[in-house]
């Protein structure tokens, strides 16, 4: 929390990352290869309401907003755990992630398996 008694921006960005990592990089996910080769190309966070420490744990809904040849955008809605699922989110965010070949130091195309996994979450 910050001086105003709500979850501050830096912590919110970290919470989004902590939600995204298991969804993309853990276990036998087809996107696990992105763990060693992707870059965050864009991050947008819009605050629609205050979240305080007593609102935790937070519910973070995620989906694929856009899917292209080398990148994809994840959408997020963040609510207090006690909030109704159809209530307005306190935070609306998105991250654009691009597949990256670290050896060649350039973008790479998403594999068919990566695209198929991400496509099942398209909104």
State the main characteristics.
single chain, 123 residues, alpha+beta, five-stranded antiparallel β-sheet, 2 helices, 20% helix, elongated
What's the β-strand tally?
Answer: 5
The succession of helices and strands, N to C, reads HEEEEEH
Mass-distribution shape:
elongated
* Uncertain stretches: none
Mean pLDDT: 92
Pfam families: 4HBT_2 (PF13279)
Protein name: Thioesterase family protein
Organism: Nocardia iowensis
Written description of the protein model:
By secondary structure, the protein is α+β, with helices and mostly antiparallel strands. The protein is 20% helix and 35% strand. The protein contains two helices and five strands. Strands 1, 2, 3, 4 and 5 form a five-stranded antiparallel beta sheet that branches. It is elongated and about 45 Å long. The mean pLDDT is 92.
Question: Short summary of the structure?
Answer:
The chain is α+β, with helices and mostly antiparallel strands and 123 residues long. The protein is built from 2 helices and 5 strands, in the order H-E-E-E-E-E-H. Strands 1, 2, 3, 4 and 5 form a 5-stranded antiparallel beta sheet that branches.
Detail the topology: elements first, then pairings.
Elements: H1 9-25, E1 38-47, E2 58-67, E3 71-80, E4 91-101, E5 106-107, H2 112-119
């Amino acid at each position: 929390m910050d001086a105003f008694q709500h979850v501050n921006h830096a912590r919110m960005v970290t919470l989004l990352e902590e939600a995204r990592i298991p969804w993309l990089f853990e276990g036998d996910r087809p996107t696990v290869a992105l763990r060693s080769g992707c870059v965050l190309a864009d991050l947008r966070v819009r605050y629609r309401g205050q979240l305080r420490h007593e609102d935790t744990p937070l519910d973070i809904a995620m989906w694929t907003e856009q899917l292209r040849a080398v990148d994809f955008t994840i959408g997020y809605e963040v609510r207090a755990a006690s909030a109704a699922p159809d209530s307005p989110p306190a935070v609306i965010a998105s991250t654009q992630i691009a597949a990256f070949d670290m050896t060649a130091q350039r973008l790479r195309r998403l594999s068919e398996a990566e695209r198929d996994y991400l496509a099942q979450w398209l909104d």
